[in-house]
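The data are quoted verbatim for completeness:
=====
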Amino acid sequence: MICTIIIFYIFIVHSKQEMRKVMAKENKKNTEVSLETILWNCRVALRTVGSTEKNRDAVIALVFLKFAGDKFNKRRQQLIEQYGNIEVFIEKPSFYNAENVYYLQETARWSYIVQNASAKNIAITIDTAMKDIEETNKSLKGTLPLNLFATLGTSTATIKSLIDEVNKIDETRFQEEDLIGRVYEYFLQVYAASGTKEDGEFYTPASVVKLIAELIEPYSGVVYDPCAGSGGMFVQSLKFVDRHNGNRKNISIIGQEANPNTWRLCKMNLAIRGIAHNLGEKNASTFLEDLHKDKKVDFIMANPPFNLKNWRDKDELTDDPRFQGFENAPPVANANYAWILHMISKLDVNKGIAGFLLANGALNSDGIELEIRKKLLEDDKIEAIIVLPRDMFYSTDISVTLWIVNMNKGANEEKKLRSRVNEVLFMDLRRWDNYVEEIAIDKGKKKKKVALTDEQIEEIRTIYSNWKDEDTSNYQDIPELCKSVKLDGVGGIRDKNYSLAPSKYIEFIDHDLDIDFDKEMSRIQGEMRELMKVEKESQRMLEDAFRGIGYAID
């Protein structure tokens, strides 16, 4: 009896332990699901708002207020612990700004927004908070959407519902290393995926941006983006520094953006992450109003609008210094080469390096673009051309090319680099389309896009690094993937009329030649004979069975 009781007790204890393990796993799983659910609920809270852009701006603005409020509260508590509850210290804006925290007046704090979420004038309360934050923190001038909530055309209950959902996004509830980054990345991605072609231009897929950072290695110096979008290039450049244990203080961020709403999104994205930046005091066209004129930079990361038309009037910018040294200015009908020349004009002439994306048409174009491309190659500015898989971008399903421009391809003993003068690395990744991301853009509707895995990014980086390495034994051409090509010689770039299409150079294997057709036919015929024998035997057994019960088969 005692033994039975002991065994039963052990069984109960063991069962409880196992139950706790299961519940712990479920809680962890539910926490993850809960964040995704909350983010989804934030998106659909304003479903009745007609404009996708207004919906996006309202959600992201409230998320900004939430995270700004959390950071303010954390810093305020630190000041109270340090100085006591003395107003002269805890209400001094400079004590917050010194730690990259925005000072918030009482009516602009998230706690105040939540407390008044049910009030009839909540829309005006939020708009006023935005205005007050901009006025108190000069670095945010022109960043936040003003008079947005009063013009949403939605009910107080709907706005309260959104506030309630945003309020659930809390660092104490979701123990994530970069919750702010995760949430912002989610909203920027899903709104780009669910929007129009133009909406897709403000967001570059994260895996592509990460690839660019890993290739150009922005450890220290000035990073520039002439078409900044929502700021993803800048975010990834600093993430690169973090991954490689660098110092963020060694990086400066500058750039500009033409679209006013996207310019604000970019500034909000960088500001809430505490990333210091200079995007100018307004939005402006890079071509018509260069906000960083005569500025030289160390790194450029960019995703210009593909095949931008009418970027200048016919007689505009024909004598622009950025296009000097070329017989003609880039054509009005397509800005691809205007972007290239603009970026080259910005790079430090001794060490500047750029990674940027262009539509594949720029690789083989003729006319004025061919003339420009010829000079760029003869001047040895182009280091690598990498064609990416199709269907990676939200604004198009075409394959896109990553260009690496390097102002100094000579040997470098310190970095153990060999001379790559008059040599270009070509890579073709169009067959790397096996990994697909699903982005939920509506109830029951998802958009599928190809993405690069971390392992694939590392493989590309390794090929590029080995190609540059002073130990030439580390690199070799790989059929259907990569090839190093010289400017001169048979099969060289001059010989191919200065084409930059990797397919002109990378060896293609006709896999059909590896097939032994006689052997394959014999195998197929043998399998067909076996299949016919099995079918005949099945038919015979079926006939016998039916005869046994008095039926006949026709």
In short: Residues 176 and 182 are 9 Å apart (CA to CA). The longest strand covers residues 353-359. The beta strands are 221-225, 251-255, 299-302, 353-359, 382-387, 400-406, 423-428, 436-442, 445-450, 482-486. Residues 3-11, 22-31 have pLDDT under 50 and may be disordered.
